[in-house]
């Protein structure tokens, strides 16, 4: 894929970019490594000042950052502005809490190990490569960058090829926030050039959010090099609704959970598993709301759902939906692309899905909801867990016993009861199974790229 800004609402190529030469890539890696040798010695207070200054820029420039995101990947302008402000929140969170999260962990009784003093100490690893996706082109990067920089690491960003202006803005905003040259750099390179960067001995670890094939590739290369990785590879999140749920709230949240980011979110609810006692009422209200959403120009305030980010992405969504329909599934709304320019696809609800259909087991990265009717909690859990993914999950019930059953029984990195799965700096984020491994955010996220050094003093 060429490195270019292509407006997904029109299909127009706005701007193209040349890849970095190999000499430039080597120069940037060298700068990163040399910077880390000095930056790792800075204190939390100094780093925090830089983080707060960068957060100030995100808040001041939220409208500009939003324009970049909407132009490059098509999310609504309101959602893009919210993403920019969330970046500021993430920066401030780690600025304020990193010292606490990475404080020495002394052994209460060092004499138990024959020492005068014994402790664990967190120290940065070095330059880390982040391979990042286009769907949250700034927040996803910040989930890595804020904790990594506060821990004393430095970052190299290989962003998705369709959001180059977002990638360059991120490098620039850290620079203008006062971070020394080399602390955070963007590498405008294609995917085929990632492997040599991963194998460079000056790059000590990697984090990737993206497709399963990309995750397998990065994990295999880093495994061969014995380098630490964190992977977030998407999901097919269940959204379970039981009879005791507040149905009106559940429906409203279900719509929001499915079409957020134009349906292109790893933690978007994708499979709606509804108890038979409330299935008909839920379906009627859900389909009505999905059908009533306004699809259109993401720059317009009234728009609920913008275009999909890429032409290939829309083709993939169409293919899975069309195959399901051909195999006997029923489309309750949507299901066909509109006429005209841009990569739009309507909010779609499908039922009558069987296990041999791709839509049952694959992630659909667009505003397509799958509906399932179940008889009880156990059947709901069986369908919810009948996927290779395990990122987020949602269950709606006011029954305390059912809540605990879903909390324990859903195979996922996250379970949200009576709410929509959301990433918060305060909570760990990550998945299990084919959704990846490791954690972002919270104290766990900042410790991922640290060496926990055991210290024993006799």
Plain-language structure description:
The model has no long low-confidence stretch (mean pLDDT 98). The longest helix has 25 residues, at 77-101. The protein has helices at residues 22-39, 44-60, 62-73, 77-101, 139-151, 164-176, 194-199, 212-225, 247-259, 276-291, 311-326, 358-361, 377-384, 400-409, 442-447; strands spanning 4-7, 12-16, 105-106, 117-124, 127-131, 154-158, 184-186, 205-209, 228-232, 237-241, 269-275, 330-333, 348-351, 368-374, 394-396, 416-417, 436-437, 450-457. The protein has 458 residues and is α/β, with parallel strands linked by helices. The N and C termini lie far apart (58 Å). The protein has 2 domains: 4-233 and 433-457, Aldehyde Dehydrogenase, Chain A, domain 1 (3-Layer(aba) Sandwich); 237-417, Aldehyde Dehydrogenase, Chain A, domain 2, CATH 3.40.309.10. It has a 7-stranded mixed beta sheet, with helices on both faces. The protein has a 6-stranded mixed beta sheet with strand order 7-6-5-8-9-17, with helices on both faces. A 3-stranded antiparallel beta sheet has the order 3-4-18, with no helix packed on it. It contains 15 helices and 18 strands. It is 42% helix and 18% strand.
């Amino acid at each position: 894929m060429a490195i270019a800004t292509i407006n997904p609402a029109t299909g127009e190529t706005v701007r193209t970019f040349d890849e970095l030469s190999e000499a430039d890539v080597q120069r940037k890696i060298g700068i990163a490594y040399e910077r880390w040798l000095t930056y790792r010695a800075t204190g939390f207070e100094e780093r925090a000042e830089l983080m707060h200054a960068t957060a100030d820029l995100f808040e001041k420039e939220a409208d500009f950052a939003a324009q970049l995101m909407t132009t490059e990947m098509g999310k609504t302008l309101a959602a893009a502005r919210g993403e920019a402000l969330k970046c500021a929140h993430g920066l401030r969170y780690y600025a304020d809490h990193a010292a606490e999260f990475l404080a020495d962990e002394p052994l209460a009784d060092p004499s138990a190990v024959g020492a005068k003093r014994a402790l664990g100490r967190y120290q940065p690893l070095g330059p880390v490569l982040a391979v990042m996706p286009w769907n949250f082109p700034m927040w996803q990067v910040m989930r890595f960058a804020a904790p990594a920089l506060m821990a004393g690491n430095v970052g190299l960003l290989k962003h998705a090829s369709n959001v180059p202006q977002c990638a360059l803005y991120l490098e620039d905003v850290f620079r203008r926030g006062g971070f020394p040259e080399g602390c955070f750099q963007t590498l405008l390179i294609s995917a085929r050039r990632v492997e040599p960067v991963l194998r460079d001995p000056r790059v000590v670890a990697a984090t990737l959010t993206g497709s399963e094939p990309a995750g397998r590739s990065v994990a295999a290369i880093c495994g061969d090099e014995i380098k630490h990785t964190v992977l977030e590879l998407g999901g097919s999140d269940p959204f379970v609704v039981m009879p005791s749920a507040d149905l009106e709230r559940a429906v409203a949240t279900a719509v929001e959970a499915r079409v957020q980011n134009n349906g292109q979110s790893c933690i978007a609810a994708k499979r709606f598993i509804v108890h038979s006692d409330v299935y008909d009422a839920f379906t009627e209200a859900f389909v009505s709301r999905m059908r009533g959403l306004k699809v259109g120009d993401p720059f317009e305030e009234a728009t609920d759902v913008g275009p999909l980010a890429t032409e290939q992405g829309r083709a993939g969504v169409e293919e899975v939906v069309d195959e399901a329909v051909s195999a006997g599934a029923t489309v309750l709304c949507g299901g066909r692309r509109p006429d005209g320019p841009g990569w739009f696809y309507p909010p779609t609800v499908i039922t009558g899905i069987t296990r041999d259909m791709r839509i049952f087991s694959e992630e659909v990265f667009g505003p397509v909801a799958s509906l399932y009717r179940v008889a009880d909690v156990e059947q709901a859990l069986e369908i919810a867990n009948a996927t290779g993914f395990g990122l987020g999950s949602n269950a709606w019930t006011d029954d305390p016993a059912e809540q605990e059953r879903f909390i324990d029984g859903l195979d996922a990195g996250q379970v949200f009861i009576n709410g929509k799965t959301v990433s918060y700096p305060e909570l760990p984020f990550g998945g299990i199974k084919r959704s990846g491994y490791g954690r972002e955010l919270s104290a766990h996220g900042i410790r991922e790229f640290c060496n926990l050094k055991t210290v024993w003093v006799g």
